[in-house]
Amino acid sequence: xxxxxxxxxxxxxxxxxxxxxxxxxxxxxxxxxxxxxxxxxxxxxxxxxxxxxxxxxxxxxxxxxxxxxxxxxxxxxxxxxxxxxxxxxxxxxxxxxxxxxxxxxxxxxxxxxxxxxxxxxxxxxxxxxxxxxxxxxxxxxxxxxxxxxxxxxxxxxxxxxxxxxxxxxxxxxxxxxxxxxxxxxxxxxxxxxxxxxxxxxxxxxxxxxxxxxxxxxxxxxxxxxxxxxxxxxxxxxxxxxxxxxxxxxxxxxxxxxxx
Length: 259
Known about the structure:
Elements: E1 12-21, E2 24-34, E3 39-43, H1 50-58, E4 63-72, E5 75-76, H2 82-88, E6 90-93, E7 100-104, H3 105-117, H4 123-137, E8 147-148, H5 154-168, E9 172-176, H6 184-197, E10 203-208, E11 221-226, E12 229-234, H7 236-245
Parallel strand pairs: 3-10, 3-11, 6-9, 9-10
Antiparallel strand pairs: 1-2, 1-4, 4-5, 7-8, 11-12
Helix pairs in contact: 3-5, 4-5, 5-6
């Protein structure tokens, strides 16, 4: 369930994935394929395993794969470290970006690009790339000199992550509840940034529990995750159904908190 018949050599292929955290099963057999150019939305209530799925794909050591696996561009990535996955082209935008006082946004972004390339980035080249991406995403020059996420609003933090994504140019981007904590204006700005980066060479896995972001970032496929399994897959109409009916038809009691 949740497959889309893509060529496993080109995209991200999650195959019957089972994941445990401290011996507790969280993901219980997820199969999902994301091809370049596709936007997939994962929706589900709190405790359904959405963020666990994201961290597992990125290789967080806390999340133990007990069965199945993940392939990226035809390669089994189970033995890859998180930085190897990043260098190969997998990007994770966090639900709660970390604040780093004393480290400027510009220095952080240059260090990120250096880590992905495996070599230093000449300052002139970096400035040119950064200037182009900031213009593309309509990010003001004042951001570069500020300390990373220090005193930033929720929307500003997410815009910097999208700017980082633009610079690193990943092949697969996992956006873990990018809409979390954003007001409607910030949501529109961040969504516009994501939309400017979408294209035939970027696959996106968008994790959310609110339909509202899908009004701005239009998914090709929507999947409902419940109890660590994809229980239903469809198109944008499925997200509209969830907006109208919630997760009650899937066994969640009314009044439960989504997440």
